[in-house]
Amino acid sequence: MKLGAPSEAALGELFDLLPEVQAWIKDARHRYLWVNRAFLLNYGLHQLDEVLGKTDHDLSPPHLAAQFLAGDEAVLAGKTVQGRLELIGRFDHTASWSFTTKRQVRDAKGRVIGTTGITRVLDAAQIDQREDIRLGVVISMMTQRLGKAVTNAEMAKAAGMSSRAFERTFLREYGLPPQQYLKRLRIQTACRLLVDTRESIASIAQRCGFADQSHLTREFRRVTDATPAAYRAEYAAANVPSAAVSVLSTQKRKR
Protein backbone atom coordinates (compact mmCIF):
# COMPACT_ATOMS: atom_id res chain seq x y z
CA MET A 1 0.00 0.00 0.00
CA LYS A 2 1.28 3.43 -0.91
CA LEU A 3 0.82 6.12 1.71
CA GLY A 4 -0.32 9.61 0.75
CA ALA A 5 1.48 12.80 1.70
CA PRO A 6 -0.58 13.42 4.90
CA SER A 7 0.17 9.91 6.17
CA GLU A 8 3.87 10.28 5.38
CA ALA A 9 3.97 13.62 7.20
CA ALA A 10 2.24 12.07 10.22
CA LEU A 11 4.81 9.27 10.36
CA GLY A 12 7.62 11.81 10.15
CA GLU A 13 6.13 13.81 13.01
CA LEU A 14 5.76 10.62 15.06
CA PHE A 15 9.44 9.74 14.68
CA ASP A 16 10.37 13.30 15.63
CA LEU A 17 8.75 12.65 19.02
CA LEU A 18 11.24 9.84 19.77
CA PRO A 19 14.38 11.64 20.99
CA GLU A 20 16.41 8.45 21.55
CA VAL A 21 15.57 6.86 18.19
CA GLN A 22 17.25 7.83 14.92
CA ALA A 23 15.26 6.97 11.77
CA TRP A 24 16.06 7.33 8.08
CA ILE A 25 15.25 6.35 4.51
CA LYS A 26 17.91 5.89 1.81
CA ASP A 27 17.77 5.17 -1.90
CA ALA A 28 19.54 2.21 -3.53
CA ARG A 29 22.71 4.30 -3.89
CA HIS A 30 22.79 4.82 -0.13
CA ARG A 31 21.81 8.50 -0.32
CA TYR A 32 19.60 9.88 2.44
CA LEU A 33 16.08 10.79 1.38
CA TRP A 34 14.66 11.52 4.84
CA VAL A 35 15.84 11.50 8.45
CA ASN A 36 14.14 12.40 11.72
CA ARG A 37 15.11 15.13 14.17
CA ALA A 38 17.11 12.80 16.45
CA PHE A 39 19.27 11.86 13.46
CA LEU A 40 19.93 15.53 12.66
CA LEU A 41 20.84 16.34 16.25
CA ASN A 42 23.19 13.36 16.47
CA TYR A 43 25.22 14.73 13.57
CA GLY A 44 25.11 18.37 14.68
CA LEU A 45 22.74 19.35 11.87
CA HIS A 46 19.59 21.47 11.97
CA GLN A 47 17.67 21.14 8.71
CA LEU A 48 16.68 18.16 6.56
CA ASP A 49 18.23 19.86 3.53
CA GLU A 50 21.65 19.52 5.17
CA VAL A 51 21.54 15.73 4.86
CA LEU A 52 19.45 15.07 1.73
CA GLY A 53 21.50 13.38 -0.99
CA LYS A 54 24.42 12.70 1.32
CA THR A 55 25.78 9.25 2.20
CA ASP A 56 27.34 7.89 5.36
CA HIS A 57 30.76 8.69 3.93
CA ASP A 58 29.75 12.36 4.10
CA LEU A 59 28.58 12.08 7.70
CA SER A 60 30.83 9.54 9.44
CA PRO A 61 34.49 8.50 9.63
CA PRO A 62 35.43 5.88 7.00
CA HIS A 63 35.56 2.97 9.46
CA LEU A 64 31.99 3.63 10.64
CA ALA A 65 30.65 4.47 7.18
CA ALA A 66 31.95 1.12 5.92
CA GLN A 67 30.03 -0.66 8.70
CA PHE A 68 26.77 1.09 7.77
CA LEU A 69 27.30 0.43 4.06
CA ALA A 70 27.80 -3.29 4.71
CA GLY A 71 24.45 -3.39 6.50
CA ASP A 72 22.70 -1.56 3.66
CA GLU A 73 24.16 -3.89 1.06
CA ALA A 74 23.01 -6.90 3.06
CA VAL A 75 19.45 -5.54 3.19
CA LEU A 76 19.40 -4.72 -0.51
CA ALA A 77 20.54 -8.29 -1.18
CA GLY A 78 17.58 -9.63 0.79
CA LYS A 79 19.25 -10.38 4.11
CA THR A 80 17.81 -9.42 7.47
CA VAL A 81 19.37 -6.78 9.70
CA GLN A 82 17.39 -7.11 12.93
CA GLY A 83 18.69 -6.00 16.31
CA ARG A 84 22.22 -5.44 15.06
CA LEU A 85 24.64 -3.87 17.53
CA GLU A 86 26.60 -1.02 15.92
CA LEU A 87 28.82 1.87 16.93
CA ILE A 88 27.08 5.08 15.87
CA GLY A 89 29.25 8.19 15.67
CA ARG A 90 28.21 11.70 16.76
CA PHE A 91 29.12 15.17 15.53
CA ASP A 92 31.71 15.44 18.33
CA HIS A 93 33.44 12.27 17.04
CA THR A 94 32.50 10.17 20.02
CA ALA A 95 30.38 7.03 19.50
CA SER A 96 27.79 4.94 21.31
CA TRP A 97 26.60 1.36 21.03
CA SER A 98 23.28 1.38 19.22
CA PHE A 99 20.61 -1.20 18.44
CA THR A 100 19.85 -1.10 14.70
CA THR A 101 17.16 -2.60 12.49
CA LYS A 102 16.98 -2.12 8.70
CA ARG A 103 14.46 -3.10 6.05
CA GLN A 104 14.05 -2.89 2.28
CA VAL A 105 11.97 -0.14 0.65
CA ARG A 106 9.95 -1.31 -2.36
CA ASP A 107 8.00 0.58 -5.01
CA ALA A 108 4.42 -0.13 -6.10
CA LYS A 109 5.65 -2.97 -8.35
CA GLY A 110 7.56 -4.65 -5.55
CA ARG A 111 11.01 -3.63 -6.76
CA VAL A 112 13.64 -2.88 -4.12
CA ILE A 113 14.47 0.81 -4.40
CA GLY A 114 16.20 1.56 -1.11
CA THR A 115 16.49 0.90 2.61
CA THR A 116 14.99 2.26 5.79
CA GLY A 117 16.09 1.84 9.36
CA ILE A 118 15.99 2.87 13.00
CA THR A 119 18.63 2.79 15.71
CA ARG A 120 18.70 3.70 19.38
CA VAL A 121 21.47 4.01 21.93
CA LEU A 122 21.94 1.00 24.18
CA ASP A 123 23.76 0.85 27.51
CA ALA A 124 26.98 -1.09 26.86
CA ALA A 125 26.83 -2.62 30.35
CA GLN A 126 23.59 -4.40 29.45
CA ILE A 127 24.54 -5.68 26.01
CA ASP A 128 25.23 -9.25 27.09
CA GLN A 129 21.88 -9.36 28.95
CA ARG A 130 19.88 -8.79 25.77
CA GLU A 131 18.96 -12.13 24.26
CA ASP A 132 17.61 -10.39 21.14
CA ILE A 133 21.09 -9.13 20.18
CA ARG A 134 22.96 -11.67 18.09
CA LEU A 135 26.51 -12.09 19.40
CA GLY A 136 25.81 -9.51 22.11
CA VAL A 137 27.83 -11.52 24.61
CA VAL A 138 30.82 -11.35 22.25
CA ILE A 139 30.55 -7.58 21.77
CA SER A 140 30.32 -7.23 25.55
CA MET A 141 33.47 -9.33 25.93
CA MET A 142 35.31 -7.16 23.42
CA THR A 143 34.26 -4.02 25.29
CA GLN A 144 35.15 -5.30 28.74
CA ARG A 145 38.53 -6.72 27.68
CA LEU A 146 39.53 -3.95 25.30
CA GLY A 147 43.03 -3.66 26.72
CA LYS A 148 43.74 -7.39 26.61
CA ALA A 149 44.08 -9.99 23.90
CA VAL A 150 40.86 -11.83 23.06
CA THR A 151 41.09 -14.86 20.79
CA ASN A 152 38.44 -16.06 18.36
CA ALA A 153 38.32 -19.32 20.31
CA GLU A 154 37.41 -17.45 23.51
CA MET A 155 34.72 -15.45 21.75
CA ALA A 156 33.31 -18.56 20.08
CA LYS A 157 33.11 -20.35 23.44
CA ALA A 158 31.26 -17.38 24.98
CA ALA A 159 28.79 -17.48 22.08
CA GLY A 160 28.34 -21.24 22.43
CA MET A 161 29.57 -21.90 18.89
CA SER A 162 32.46 -23.64 17.19
CA SER A 163 35.28 -21.32 16.14
CA ARG A 164 34.51 -21.78 12.46
CA ALA A 165 30.77 -21.20 12.86
CA PHE A 166 31.41 -18.17 15.03
CA GLU A 167 33.80 -16.59 12.51
CA ARG A 168 31.32 -17.12 9.66
CA THR A 169 28.42 -15.74 11.70
CA PHE A 170 30.37 -12.70 12.91
CA LEU A 171 31.52 -11.84 9.40
CA ARG A 172 27.94 -12.12 8.14
CA GLU A 173 26.56 -9.96 10.96
CA TYR A 174 29.21 -7.23 11.06
CA GLY A 175 30.92 -7.30 7.69
CA LEU A 176 34.38 -7.80 9.21
CA PRO A 177 36.26 -10.74 10.77
CA PRO A 178 36.19 -10.64 14.60
CA GLN A 179 39.78 -9.46 15.04
CA GLN A 180 39.40 -6.66 12.49
CA TYR A 181 36.20 -5.52 14.17
CA LEU A 182 37.97 -5.58 17.55
CA LYS A 183 40.73 -3.39 16.12
CA ARG A 184 38.15 -0.91 14.80
CA LEU A 185 36.47 -0.90 18.23
CA ARG A 186 39.79 -0.11 19.88
CA ILE A 187 40.41 2.77 17.47
CA GLN A 188 36.90 4.16 18.01
CA THR A 189 37.35 3.98 21.77
CA ALA A 190 40.68 5.78 21.41
CA CYS A 191 38.86 8.50 19.43
CA ARG A 192 36.42 8.99 22.28
CA LEU A 193 39.15 9.13 24.93
CA LEU A 194 41.16 11.61 22.87
CA VAL A 195 38.11 13.87 22.53
CA ASP A 196 36.67 13.52 26.03
CA THR A 197 39.73 13.24 28.30
CA ARG A 198 43.19 14.68 28.88
CA GLU A 199 44.66 11.22 29.34
CA SER A 200 48.07 10.75 27.75
CA ILE A 201 48.23 9.09 24.36
CA ALA A 202 50.52 6.42 25.80
CA SER A 203 47.95 5.61 28.50
CA ILE A 204 45.12 5.52 25.93
CA ALA A 205 47.18 3.13 23.81
CA GLN A 206 47.52 0.77 26.77
CA ARG A 207 43.85 1.00 27.73
CA CYS A 208 42.78 0.23 24.16
CA GLY A 209 44.97 -2.84 23.70
CA PHE A 210 47.90 -1.45 21.70
CA ALA A 211 51.49 -2.39 22.48
CA ASP A 212 52.59 1.22 22.88
CA GLN A 213 51.96 4.74 21.61
CA SER A 214 53.76 4.07 18.32
CA HIS A 215 51.56 1.05 17.66
CA LEU A 216 48.41 3.10 18.32
CA THR A 217 49.67 5.90 16.07
CA ARG A 218 50.28 3.54 13.15
CA GLU A 219 46.89 1.85 13.39
CA PHE A 220 45.07 5.12 14.14
CA ARG A 221 46.49 6.80 11.04
CA ARG A 222 45.43 3.87 8.83
CA VAL A 223 41.81 4.24 9.91
CA THR A 224 41.40 8.01 10.43
CA ASP A 225 44.15 9.47 8.21
CA ALA A 226 45.39 11.43 11.23
CA THR A 227 47.71 10.89 14.17
CA PRO A 228 46.17 10.71 17.66
CA ALA A 229 47.82 14.01 18.58
CA ALA A 230 46.45 15.78 15.48
CA TYR A 231 43.01 14.26 16.03
CA ARG A 232 42.93 15.49 19.63
CA ALA A 233 44.16 18.95 18.67
CA GLU A 234 41.33 19.33 16.16
CA TYR A 235 38.42 17.71 17.97
CA ALA A 236 38.99 17.89 21.72
CA ALA A 237 36.14 19.89 23.24
CA ALA A 238 38.56 22.04 25.20
CA ASN A 239 40.05 23.34 21.96
CA VAL A 240 36.82 23.92 20.01
CA PRO A 241 34.49 26.82 20.86
CA SER A 242 30.98 25.44 21.39
CA ALA A 243 29.46 27.69 18.74
CA ALA A 244 31.83 26.36 16.11
CA VAL A 245 31.52 22.63 16.83
CA SER A 246 28.86 21.82 14.22
CA VAL A 247 30.57 23.93 11.55
CA LEU A 248 33.95 22.35 12.16
CA SER A 249 32.56 18.82 12.20
CA THR A 250 30.65 19.43 8.96
CA GLN A 251 33.78 20.71 7.25
CA LYS A 252 35.68 17.67 8.45
CA ARG A 253 33.03 15.26 7.18
CA LYS A 254 33.08 16.86 3.74
CA ARG A 255 36.84 16.45 3.47
Give the strand content: 15-25%
Strand order of the largest sheet: 2-1-5-4-3
The domain count comes to 3
CATH topology type of the largest domain: Beta-Lactamase
In CATH, what is the homologous superfamily of the largest domain? PAS domain
Mean pLDDT: 84
Q: What separation lies between the terminal Cα atoms?
A: 40 Å
Structural class by SSE content: alpha+beta
Overall outline: globular
Bin the helical content: 40-55%
Sheet bearing the most strands, described? 5 strands, antiparallel
Q: What does the radius of gyration come to?
A: 19 Å
CATH architecture of the largest domain, please?
2-Layer Sandwich
What is the CATH C level class of the largest domain, in words?
Answer: Alpha Beta
Write the layout of secondary structure elements.
Elements: H1 5-16, E1 21-27, E2 32-35, H2 37-42, H3 56-59, H4 62-76, E3 81-89, E4 95-106, E5 112-121, H5 136-144, H6 152-159, H7 163-174, H8 178-196, H9 201-207, H10 213-224, H11 228-235, H12 245-254
Helix pairs in contact: 5-6, 6-7, 8-11, 9-10
